[in-house]
């Protein structure tokens, strides 16, 4: 039984990561292949070639993003985008969602942005218990004035699904920086602590 268990576990370690990777990539490719529906029916690859070619939607999606970026980066494109955003700003519910998502994307993908680029330790859900969190912003203007303290915005993801979590405002002196990359932090969260960065969290250099 020990012999069988050893090699069954070894087999799982090979196939489970491969299977999960395949499922995720297949889901993304299938989702992006829907962009082919934007083409006139007569010019869709399935009709032209008589069979489906996976991944063509990915190329089309990248091409659309590239062309959109080229248009939006010039003077005429900026005016069009400005007019479009002005129109969206007049719609009550839409303007709230659009502005929030736009600001989040600009913050995350800006060259000098700091969102989700730093892993910290915070005491959560109570004092004495520590968990990993991602620093999202160091500016909380109105909140700092209301609390009278220097607070920062952190996102505490759940595990093993980091897409859900908690947004918490934490006093700056109560967080601890970690010598850990975002990739290492995500691996630790996804594995529920089974995968530790380097020599492990306990031996990481923790700076108050």
TrEMBL record:
Keyword RNA-binding on entry: no
InterPro entries xrefs: COV1-like (IPR007462)
Keywords of this entry: Membrane, Transmembrane, Transmembrane helix
Pfam families, per the entry: DUF502
UniProt key word Transmembrane helix: yes
Regions that span the bilayer: 7-29, 49-76
Superkingdom assignment: Bacteria
UniProt name for this protein: DUF502 domain-containing protein
Taxon lineage: Bacteria, Pseudomonadati, Pseudomonadota, Gammaproteobacteria, Chromatiales
């Amino acid at each position: 039984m020990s012999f069988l268990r050893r090699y069954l576990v070894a087999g799982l370690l090979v196939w489970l990561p491969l299977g999960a990777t395949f499922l995720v990539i297949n889901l993304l490719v299938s989702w992006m292949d829907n962009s082919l529906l934007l083409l006139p029916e007569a010019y869709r690859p399935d009709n032209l070639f008589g069979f489906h070619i996976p991944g063509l939607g990915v190329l089309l999606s990248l091409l659309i993003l590239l062309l959109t970026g080229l248009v939006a980066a010039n003077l005429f494109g900026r005016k069009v985008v400005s007019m479009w955003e002005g129109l969206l700003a007049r719609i009550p519910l839409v303007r709230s969602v659009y502005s929030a998502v736009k600001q989040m994307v600009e913050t995350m993908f800006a060259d000098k942005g700091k969102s989700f680029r730093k892993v910290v330790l915070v005491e959560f859900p109570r004092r004495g218990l520590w968990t990993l969190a991602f620093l999202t912003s160091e500016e909380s203007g109105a909140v700092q004035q209301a609390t009278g303290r220097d607070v920062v915005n952190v996102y505490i993801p759940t595990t093993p699904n980091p897409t859900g979590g908690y947004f918490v405002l934490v006093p700056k002196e109560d967080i601890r920086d970690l010598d850990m990359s975002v990739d290492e932090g995500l691996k630790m969260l996804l594995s529920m602590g089974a995968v530790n960065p380097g020599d492990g969290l306990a031996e990481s250099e923790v700076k108050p």
